[in-house]
Amino acid sequence: QFDTNSHRYGRIGLGDWTRYPLITPGALVRIDTQRRKIECSGWRNDFEHPIYFVETRSAYVCSWVLPLEEGMLLLQPYSLSPCKASLKAFPQEAEIVGQVTGVAMCLTAAAQGERVPPATDPG
Question: Which of 22, 68, 81, 99 would give a disulfide with 72, using CB separation of 3.0 to 4.6 Å?
């Protein structure tokens, strides 16, 4: 059952490699819209590090987020991702939709040798 009261659902674009290989392009994610405050500490490893679904003016991005001084957010891709980190003015250029709390994805694309693109800006 889908809980639409406190959660939204999003699909990672087929060209979005920001969280690869943890979250593959085409994955379905559950977003807790009650969790919009960025957590900057308290995790022990990459799997516990909060991932946020972010709406930018050009795209949605599923990323680690680090708030910087002067109203800037750093959208940080996974370390093995081909994507580059990007800076966005907050809230003018980026808005936190919520924290990703669930993922459904296909694992066969990576197993079949799908080609990972060169480094890109995530949003």
Answer: 68
- The single residue listed with the structure tokens 């819209």 is 33
The pLDDT of residue 116 is above 70: no
The span from the CA of 10 to the CA of 25, in Å, is 12
Which segments within 16-68 are labelled E, that is strand? 28-32, 52-56, 60-68
Q: Report the C-alpha gap between 123 and 25 in whole angstroms.
A: 15
pLDDT at 95 over 60: yes
> What average pLDDT score do residues 81-86 get?
92
DSSP assignment, residue 110? H
Q: pTM for the whole thing?
A: 0.83
Burial 71-105 (b: 16+ CB within 10 A, else e): eebebbbbeebebeebebebeebbebbbbbeebeb
Please state, in angstroms and rounded to a whole number, the distance separating the CA atoms of residues 21 and 14. 13
Of 92, 100, 39, give the one whose Cα is nearest residue 65.
39
Distance CA 40, CA 56 (A): 20
Phi, psi of 47 (to 5 degrees): -75, -25
